[in-house]
Structures are given as C-alpha cells and as structure tokens.
Amino acid sequence: MDYLTQFFSKEHLSNVGKTLWKWWVASFAIIVVAYLITYLVDPDVKKTMNGIRNALSGTGGKESYWEGTFTIFKNNWGVCLQVLILSFIPIPFLYTYSLILTNALIGVVVYLSQKAGLGLIHTILAGLLPHAVLEISTFILAIYYGRKINKIIIGKITNKLRSKNKDVPQLWKQVKETLIIFVCVITPAIFLAAFIEGYLSRFLLNY
User: Fold this and answer.
1) Of 44-53, 62-71, 96-105, 172-181, where does mean pLDDT reach its minimum?
2) Which secondary-structure segment (H or E) carries 60?
3) Cβ–Cβ contacts within 10 Å for residue 143, how many?
4) Distances from the Cα of 178 to the Cα of 16, 100, 138, 175, 185, angstroms
5) What is the DSSP letter of 161?
6) 129-159 vs 62-86: helix axis angle to the nearest 10?
7) Most CB within 10 Å of its CB: which of 24, 34, 63, 101?
8) Range of the domain at 194
C-alpha cells in the first residue's frame, strides 16, 4: 500500500502529469503525420471499411457489446504488458514502440473513416475521444514505469564499464512497485477505457 500512497502523492502525480503532457504532444504529432501520409498515399479502402463494419456489427445485442469490450481490454492490457516487457531490454525508448504504433494506427483509421464517409468530426468526437484519452494516458503511464526499469538496467550495465560506479536504484524494488501499479492502477484504467469503447463509442457510432 506504500507504493499506492506514493503514487497518489502530490509530487509523484506532478511527475506523472509532466510525462503525460510530453507524450500526449508526441502522440498528437504522430497521429497527424500518420493521417497526412495516409492522405498522400490515398489507398482504396471501400471494401476494407465495409469488411470492418460487418465484423464489428455482431449481433447488435448486449452480448456482442460485452464480447467487444473484453477483446479490447485483452488487447490493450497486452499492449501495456508489452511495454513493461520491452523495458527490460537495455535499449532506450524501445518500450515506446507500442504507443508509437497505436498512435500511427489512429491516424490511419481516422483518415480511412473519413474517406468511408463517417465524417472527421464525428469519428473523433464519437469514435475516439470517449475512450482514447484514458487509453493512451494509460499506455503513457506504463511507459513512465517502463522507463524507470529501463534506466536502472542500463545504469547497471554502464556501471560495469566505468571505473567509478554511479548509484543505481535496486531493480527488484522498482519491478515490485511497477507490478503493484500495473495491477491496481493500469489494469482498472484499461478496463474502464475498454468498457467506454465497447459500449459508449459503439453506441455513438451506431454499430
């Protein structure tokens, strides 16, 4: 519980807020670039979008909505887990791969949806904003903790190459803290984002 108390402390939330702000700016830039590249390529997406609509329509009942929510939760939970797993590889920023790819796909999907006639504003307000803000913020939170693990591992490796070692936090303590936050904060947030996407966003998009 000490880790949770520390997580919700004013100083720690301020640090998390700074990370969120930086990565949200980067995320927006990636989304715009991906949108513009897709616009320049101008792919033929009519058949693809029809296939996506048919696949998402399901039975139209509550069961299909719940199944969609669970699938979204499972996929996004896996993304956050992937971020933490990649953070153990001593390569800076490799763990950000999942977020970068997700943002690029958002830019592509926004363009494809617009070209399919859904409307840019409607797609963003109804299809993205209700869940994407929480979803991407949770990915960024996973990156925040992944960066801590990655820095410790790289610090331990570089210490072996130095004549005088620098102080490096204990890895197991950081892993323990990260796992607690992953279970108690990241997982519930991912489920809430999946619930919003699986129910509210689908309702607003009428499928």
Assistant:
1) 44-53
2) none
3) 24
4) 14, 21, 13, 5, 10
5) T
6) 20
7) 34
8) 2-205
Tokens encoding 109:
């999907």
CA atoms within 13 Å, Cβ hemisphere of 180: 13
Q: In this structure, are residues 164 and 127 in contact, taking their beta carbons and an 8 Å threshold?
A: no
> How many structural domains compose the chain?
1
**Token representation of residue 192:** 């809430």
Q: Is the pLDDT of residue 65 over 80?
A: no
DSSP letters, 85-149, are HHTTSSSTTGGGHHHHHHHHHHHHHHHHHHHTTS-HHHIIIIIIHHHHHHHHHHHHHHHHHHHHH
Distance from C-alpha of 139 to C-alpha of 154, rounded to nearest angstrom: 22
In which region does residue 165 sit, left (phi positive, over 0), alpha (psi from -120 to 50) or beta (all else)? Answer: beta
Q: How far apart are CA 145 and CA 88, in angstroms?
A: 11
Assess contact for 49 and 113: CB atoms under 8 A.
yes
**Token duo for residue 173:** 């303590």
